[in-house]
Structures are given as C-alpha cells and as structure tokens.
Amino acid sequence: MGKSKVKIIAILAPPGVQLLDVCGPLDVFAEANVQAGRHVYTLTVIGTDRKAGPVRSSSGISIVADYTMRDQMETIDTLLVAGCPDLPERILDEKLVDWLRATAPSARRFGSVCSGALILAQAGLLDGKRVTTHWSVAKRLQQLYPKINVEADAIHTRDGRVRTAAGVTAGLDLALALVEEDLGRDIAIAVANQLVMYFKRPGGQLQFSSKGEIKAAGRSTLQEVQRYIAANPHLDHSVANLAERLGLSERHFARLFHNEVGMTPAVWVEQVRIEAARRLLESNMSPKQVALECGFANADTLRRAFVKQVGVSPATYQKNFR
Q1: Residues 6+ apart with CB under 8 A from 161
Q2: Which CATH class is domain 7-208?
Q3: pTM score, two decimals?
Q4: Residues 162 and 126: beta-carbon distance below 8 Å
Q5: Residues with catalytic annotation?
Q6: With 80 as the cut, is the pLDDT of residue 91 above it?
Q7: What is the pLDDT of residues 15-50, one digit of tens each?
Q8: Domain map of the chain by residue range?
Q9: What is the CATH number assigned to the segment(s) 220-319?
C-alpha cells in the first residue's frame, strides 16, 4: 500500500481506567508499525485533568498521559474511550462529556473499549448506532440509552464511524480490526501471530459471561416451581406437567408465568438447562452425557440450544476449560 499521513491513535483514560483497555489496543497498533515497516500510527494517551497528575488505573498502576483535554493536539484519526470497572451510571465531569462532543466528530473514527461506551453514550454520540460493551453492563447501557442498539454478544462492532469493543481483552480484537481496515489482512494476520492472539476470535462474548443460579421470580408458588426445575433440569418440564404440579390449567399457568417472570415457561426451562450444561461442560463431561443430565433429547438438541444462547457449540465452549 502507498504511503499516507501518519495516523494519531488517541485513547482517553478516565480515572480508575482498566489498564488493559489502554495498553492492549496500543500494543496492537505499535506492532502494526513494526509489521508494516514504517511509522503508520502515533500513539497517545489523553488524561482528563493535568492537575490530577498520572492517571491511576483500577489495578493501582499509574499511567502518565501524553496530553490532557486542555491541550491542543493535531487532528486525531482514531479516538477510543477506555472503560473503568467501577464506572458510575453517569459521569459527573461535564467537561469530559463536553470535550467528547467537541472532539469525537472531528476524528475519522471514534469508539470505546469495554464500559467506555457508557461515557460516549452520555455524550449522545452513540444514538442510533449499533454498539457493544462488556456483557455485565450491556443491559444497563440499553436501559439508560434506549436510542442505542446494543449487541450484547458482539466482540466488537462497526457502524459508520463508530467502533466499539466488548470487555477488556476485546479491545485488542477491535484494534486488530482497525489495523486490517488501514493496512490490509496480511499485516493484521502478522500482528495477530506476533501477539499470539486470534485473528478472528471464535464465538461472541457471552460465552465468558458469569454463570450461576438463575434467580426465581414472581409469586411464591411460581418461585417454588422454578426452584424445582433448577434442581431437576433432566425431568420433563412441559407446560402440562408444570401446570399440573400447581393445580392450574395449562393456559392459566402459561399466562401467569409469562406475566410474572417475563418469559414463557419453555424459555425459562431452556435457560436453566443451558446454565446447568455450562457447569457440566466445564467439568469435562462429554456433550452427549451433558445432554442427558440436563434434559435435552440428544447432543444435537443441546448443540442447537447452546449455540443460540451462548454463541458457540458445546465442544468449542469446553475447549476453554481444558
């Protein structure tokens, strides 16, 4: 590819930033310079306040920012907002939000890593866009900013000039995708090989989401039947059987369950079974045996349900725990 103007990559690091949200993407761009054999990217970190000194990260390590929001800079090519583990629902520093509103639109592309999407959203820069964020804050992002289309399972997204990455290490995936945009597939693959990372990560981020008992909801009788299902995922939990257990008609039980739990009995049962399947797969039980233990007709039925909810096959998921 022909020579072009050096691109300034700027990462905004708020106080309490996740260190890997900053250094991960920067290392990808730095390696791209090496693989390209020329200075393609200039890398910068922007702090929020010069008076605050180095930016203290969530791990306790401090970052010395190259610039602050008060400084004059050359035109930013790519602006990314890094996330913080304990980011509040709304950023109280209005100067930060105002700076983003003024700066991001002038960049060729802008976006976020992890919960940094919440900051961009507060600035109104994600309205109408397809974005992602860390799975643990995806629901909160969608509720707070309903004009945004949140893809909770995506590793990273691209919508117009907006680029967003899921949690933490997904910032590397996003940076690699940006390198591919700029320098082509061959250099991006060379960068991935050098950094020992996937060129295209298999599956989405929900395969990494926290696992645990699905909480019962609704009136006490419904919670009782939900606990029964969770304790016995292998049994036949048809609407007919569950309604009979409560002494209700099928139609009344199904309507009551949906109204109070927020989903149909069948969907709830499948979610419980998938969570049970995840735990058993992590213990290295074969998918065929997991299907029997969790109430699926066979391994193929388990696979279809698992891919639908988790985004990868049981076999692929299990590889993460070997």
Answers
A1: 107, 108, 109, 110
A2: alpha beta
A3: 0.74
A4: yes
A5: 114
A6: no
A7: 999 999 999 999 999 999 999 999 999 999 999 876
A8: 7-208, 220-319
A9: 1.10.10.60
